[in-house]
């Protein structure tokens, strides 16, 4: 396997007394799309939120094991959460732009991390919008409220919002579940573009989406990683019966 | 009963109840304007009282009330908003923070005369500020803190959760998140609390009686350590303590106080609606 972007070793996660992730060992390759699938409550979103430590916001979460990103265990003491989240961007289930202008949404991360001079903002905004194929639609509407955009445009904008931080990894938590089929198709095409530069991890409850859009797929069930392999293998010759049963729609 | 008839009766009763609420307010306004309007003049608003307050104007009282409002707001708004931010954004939900929140809500119910006594004990005597604008502003500020904190808390809590989540996920610190993604959107609600506080500060008599208000001063206050006259107390003085003051002067003073509060509120409402137009979600 090629370069590894995220590696977990014996990862356990507890919400209070409940163990949501059990002994996860996983290697996510760089610059590919990795899909996490499984029935509701299997831990796939929890696993995704481990990678940028968004679970920290929930009270009573404990983690053991290692998660290595960029050569560093992100749960080691003294790790800088802010630069971790700069490295690992996230796109959420519902499009959630700030109630600001398109322009302000994109420069938000820049101003927070003081990454660029104000004079460079214009170019960075253009580049970010071009990357998500919104520039032609929005170049004359940069000062308009982001909430006036269509849902698909909003979700693209949310992707564009993380790009100026130059992340290595993009986490996407069911990014298409609020979108119609056409918009979904467009976002999937966009993922194929973006994976040239970014490692993408996507959580989806839509198996067809995992099949279409990902290079690798991990199947989780009740907090365990049942199987992790190339998407083609998972969907044609899964090694585990449980995976096969889930893929073929016998449960879940 | 016939449902159509019942509907008519219900409607009539509800309308009557509404009118009964509005009526006293209208009557008060009419009486005050009717009896006080003739006193209002440039001279009345902007000159010193003369001849044992039977003639001349009420300028020192107007100015004093403005000073007190300003002082209380300068003191209470930053402090109250900071406390609200801490309670909503930083403190975890345990018995201590619940106790603090409960105490703050209950503080709003403490009679203002008690705040007056407190101000007298702490600021006037203990800190030695004497009866002064400083003591009065601080006392009034403490009195409106619960209103400011409670409304600021509600405003902060009504900012959607995902603003914080997204901001944090972009690597913003908690403080940056509060500063850029939460506070700006809570501003209209915070201003509402300020408006409510303004009205109370301008109209309150008991606390200033203990801490700042002067019966009569021949000159304007020179610093925050001076006493000042103030409209509510002045109104009380000329209505009950000094004989021979024309009726239109008394009602005129009430009219000025009323107008002042309305103007302050209007200004705050205008500011708020400008923010509302800018921020929508």
What report would you give on this structure?
The complex is a heterodimer of chains A (about 250) and B (about 280). Chain A is α/β, with parallel strands linked by helices and about 250 residues long. Chain A has helices at about 45-50, 80-85, 100-115, 120-130, 135-140, 150-160, 180-195, 205-215, 230-235, 240-245; strands at about 5-15, 20-30, 35, 60-70, 70-75, 90, 170-175, 200-205, 215-220, 225-230. Chain A has a single domain (about 5-245), classed as P-loop containing nucleotide triphosphate hydrolases (Rossmann fold, 3-Layer(aba) Sandwich). Chain A contains ten helices and ten strands. In chain A, strand 9 and strand 10 form a beta hairpin. The mean pLDDT of chain A is about 90. Chain B has about 280 residues and is mainly alpha-helical. Chain B has one domain (about 60-275): MetI-like (MetI-like fold, Orthogonal Bundle), CATH 1.10.3720. Chain B is globular and about 70 Å long. The longest helix of chain B has about 35 residues, at about 5-35. A two-stranded antiparallel sheet of chain B has the order 1-2. Classes of the chains: A alpha/beta (about 250), B mainly alpha (about 280).
Keywords:
heterodimer, A: alpha/beta, 6-stranded mixed β-sheet, 27% strand, B: 281 residues, mainly alpha, two-stranded antiparallel sheet, 2 strands, globular
């Amino acid at each position: 396997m090629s370069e590894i972007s995220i590696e977990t070793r014996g990862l356990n996660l507890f919400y209070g007394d409940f163990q949501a992730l059990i002994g996860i060992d996983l290697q996510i390759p760089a610059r590919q799309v990795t899909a996490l699938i499984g029935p509701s409550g299997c831990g796939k979103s929890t696993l995704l939120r481990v990678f940028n430590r968004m679970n920290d916001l929930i009270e009573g979460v404990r983690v053991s094991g290692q998660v290595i990103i960029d050569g560093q265990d992100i749960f080691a003491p003294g790790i800088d959460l802010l630069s971790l989240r700069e490295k690992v961007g996230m796109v959420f289930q519902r499009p959630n732009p700030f109630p600001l202008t398109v322009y302000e949404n994109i420069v938000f991360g820049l101003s927070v991390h003081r990454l660029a001079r104000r004079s460079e903002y214009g170019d960075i905004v253009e580049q970010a919008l071009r990357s998500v194929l919104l520039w032609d639609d929005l170049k004359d509407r940069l000062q308009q409220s982001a909430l006036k955009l269509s849902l698909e445009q909003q979700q693209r904008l949310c992707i564009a919002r993380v790009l100026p931080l130059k992340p290595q990894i993009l986490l996407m938590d069911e990014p298409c579940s609020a979108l119609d089929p056409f918009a979904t198709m467009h976002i999937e095409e966009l993922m194929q573009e973006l994976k040239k530069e970014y490692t993408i991890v996507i959580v989806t409850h839509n198996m067809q989406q995992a099949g279409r859009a990902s290079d690798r797929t991990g199947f989780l069930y009740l907090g365990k990683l049942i199987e992790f392999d190339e998407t083609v293998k998972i969907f044609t010759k899964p090694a585990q019966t449980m995976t096969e049963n889930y893929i073929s729609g016998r449960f879940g | 009963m016939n449902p159509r008839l019942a509907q008519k009766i219900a409607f009539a009763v509800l309308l009557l109840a509404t009118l009964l609420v509005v009526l006293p307010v209208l009557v008060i306004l009419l009486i005050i304007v009717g009896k006080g309007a003739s006193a209002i003049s440039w001279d009345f608003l902007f000159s010193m009282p003369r001849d044992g307050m039977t003639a001349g104007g009420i300028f020192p009282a107007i100015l004093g009330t403005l000073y007190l409002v300003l002082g209380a707001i300068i003191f209470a708004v930053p402090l109250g908003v900071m406390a609200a931010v801490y309670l909503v954004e930083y403190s975890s939900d345990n018995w201590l923070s619940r106790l603090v929140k409960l105490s703050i809500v209950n503080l709003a119910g403490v009679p203002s005369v008690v705040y007056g006594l407190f101000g007298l004990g702490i600021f006037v005597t203990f800190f030695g500020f004497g009866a002064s604008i400083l003591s009065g502003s601080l006392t009034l500020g403490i009195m409106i803190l619960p209103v400011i904190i409670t409304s600021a808390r509600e405003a902060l809590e009504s900012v959607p959760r995902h603003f914080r989540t997204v901001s944090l996920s972009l690597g913003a610190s908690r403080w940056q998140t509060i500063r850029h993604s939460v506070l700006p959107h809570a501003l209209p609600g915070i201003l509402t609390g300020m408006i409510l506080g303004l009205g109370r500060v301008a109209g309150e008599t008991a606390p200033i009686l203990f801490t700042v208000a002067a019966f009569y001063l021949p000159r304007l206050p020179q610093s925050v350590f001076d006493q000042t006259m103030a409209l509510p107390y002045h109104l009380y003085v000329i209505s009950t303590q000094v004989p021979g003051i024309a009726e239109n002067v008394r009602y005129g003073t009430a009219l000025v106080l009323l107008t002042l509060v309305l103007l302050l509120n209007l200004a705050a409402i205008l500011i708020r609606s400008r923010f509302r137009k800018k921020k929508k979600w």
